[in-house]
């Protein structure tokens, strides 16, 4: 509807921005209903100010939508234990979750665990409606399944089960066919969430434990966080792209941070002498806001103070970037200004359709030829700092050759551009793709 007025790129992203807004609002109203206004304000703002989540809130990808439907299904499941109307809703919305992303099939497990622990006599109806209605919604709204549904469904899930391994650079080592270690999601969570939010979420767990684990709402929040992290830590789970593959964790983490903030607010409110002090605690969000602004547009590369920020993460061998968002307007302008007429350039590593998209949308000159890493006759190599995709030659270029252009933040390079003549000794006659 809008692409003729604002361009296809921004038009594609508007739906995700709306869904991200809906997710923030959902976290706010969930926390307001089950906790209080301070938990609601802090939880929603802390989710908005998580740099990596904020970045994904603007990408036309599945990660924010699955986080949203996972959270909404969880909420409706809680309400469904006391209302048949909400039991029907949880069945219908579970179908939408299945349509959103394949890992929604696992959503029923934390719901069953919570129901068995906290609502043993009341949750069975929810499960019946999920099993009855979600497959109907799933098939009805996916036309591909109308013809030979079982065969197409099996093909779909087999595709994801047999997904080719994606390389990731983690703690100084490249993993691919051998998945990253089990602790990957735990370390990424601990190092990519703003420090105050992370500490308050831990305080929220402390408050839950102090209540002898009887708080059923906090129980649902904690169960979902632990389940998603444990699921991602399994040996068969693909581990790459930072936090992207376990995005549903973060709304629950934000709720938990809101719980911790609310408990802290209550404790500080006891000091009657300084009535202004409790609300001053909202300043705990200020560092995240400042960082969000300063690091733009590299929010997907954010690391917190516990690993020494992005410089500390780089030093410790954490992957710098993965989503191609380091390819900024400034970099594309540099290429437009410096690439010779009908020049040939290589983007690596990047999705094969992306450079062509830059040409179609006018970000890159039409005459520039996009070629791949196997081409020996390119003019420029645009090397993105997704170190998991580097071979020996690319590592050597990255570490030893001075680029003619660089995009960086706090001294950490996100992108380097090299002239072919500057790296021809490393490339040799067999090009860049040969590992030897």
Overview of the molecule:
The protein has helices spanning 3-6, 8-34, 37-48, 51-56, 63-80, 84-100, 108-118, 124-140, 149-161, 184-192, 195-210, 216-233, 249-269, 277-280, 286-295, 309-315, 329-338, 354-360, 392-400, 420-427; strands spanning 168-170, 173-175, 344-348, 369-371, 380-384, 405-409, 412-419. The protein has 436 residues and is α/β, with parallel strands linked by helices. It has two domains: 3-295, no CATH class; 329-430, no CATH class. Helix 2 runs parallel beside helix 5, helix 5 packs antiparallel against helix 6 and helix 11 crosses helix 13. The longest helix is centred in the first third of the chain and has 27 residues, at 8-34. The protein is globular.
N- to C-terminal distance: 50 Å
Number of helices: 20
- Helicity, in percent? 55-70%
Instruction: Round the Cα radius of gyration to an integer and report it.
Output: 24 Å
- State mean pLDDT (0 to 100 scale): 93
Number of domains: 2
Content of β-strand? 5-15%
Strand order of the largest sheet: 4-3-5-7-6
* Model regions low in confidence, pLDDT < 50 over at least 5 residues: none
Order of helices and strands: HHHHHHHHHEEHHHHHHHHEHEEHEEH
Which descriptor suits the 3D outline? globular
Question: How would you sum up the major sheet?
Answer: 5 strands, mixed
Structural class: alpha/beta
Q: Count every beta strand, where a strand is a DSSP E run of 2 or more residues.
A: 7
């Amino acid at each position: 509807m809008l692409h003729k007025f604002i361009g296809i790129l921004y038009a594609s992203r508007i739906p995700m921005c709306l869904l991200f807004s809906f997710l923030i609002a959902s976290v706010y109203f969930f926390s307001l209903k089950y906790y209080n206004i301070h938990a609601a304000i802090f939880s929603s703002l802390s989710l908005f100010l998580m740099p990596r989540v904020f970045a994904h809130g603007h990408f036309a990808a599945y990660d924010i939508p699955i986080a949203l439907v996972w959270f909404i299904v969880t909420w409706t499941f809680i309400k469904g234990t006391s209302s048949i109307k909400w039991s029907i809703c949880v069945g219908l919305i579970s179908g939408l979750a299945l349509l959103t992303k394949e890992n929604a099939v696992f959503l029923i497990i934390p719901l069953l665990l919570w129901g068995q622990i906290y609502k043993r006599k009341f949750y069975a109806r929810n499960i019946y409606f999920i099993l009855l209605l979600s497959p109907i919604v799933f098939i009805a709204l996916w036309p591909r399944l109308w013809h030979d549904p079982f065969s197409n469904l099996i093909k779909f899930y087999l595709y994801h089960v047999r997904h080719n391994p994606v390389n990731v650079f983690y703690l100084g080592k490249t993993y691919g066919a051998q998945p990253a270690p089990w602790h990957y999601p735990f370390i990424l969570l601990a190092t990519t969430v703003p420090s105050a939010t992370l500490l308050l979420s831990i305080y929220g767990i402390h408050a839950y434990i102090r209540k002898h684990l009887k708080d059923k709402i906090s129980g649902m929040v904690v169960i979902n966080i632990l389940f998603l992290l444990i699921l991602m830590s399994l040996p068969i789970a693909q581990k790459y792209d930072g936090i992207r593959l376990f995005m549903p964790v973060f709304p629950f983490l934000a709720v938990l941070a809101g719980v911790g903030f609310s408990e802290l607010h209550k404790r500080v409110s006891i000091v009657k002498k300084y009535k202004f002090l409790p609300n001053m605690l909202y300043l705990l969000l200020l560092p995240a806001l400042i960082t969000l602004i300063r690091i733009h547009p590299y929010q997907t590369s954010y690391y917190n103070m516990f690993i020494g920020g992005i410089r500390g993460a780089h030093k410790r061998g954490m992957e710098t970037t993965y989503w191609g968002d380091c390819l900024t307007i400034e970099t594309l302008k540099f290429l437009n200004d410096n690439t010779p007429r009908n020049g040939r350039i290589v983007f690596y590593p990047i999705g094969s359709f992306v450079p062509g998209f830059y040409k179609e949308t006018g970000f890159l000159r039409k005459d520039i030829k996009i070629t791949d890493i196997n081409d020996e006759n390119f003019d420029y190599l645009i090397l993105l700092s997704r170190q998991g995709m580097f071979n020996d030659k690319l590592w050597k270029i990255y570490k030893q050759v001075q680029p003619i252009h660089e995009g960086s933040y706090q001294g950490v390079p996100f992108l380097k551009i090299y002239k072919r003549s500057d790296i021809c000794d490393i490339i040799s006659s067999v090009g860049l793709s040969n590992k030897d």
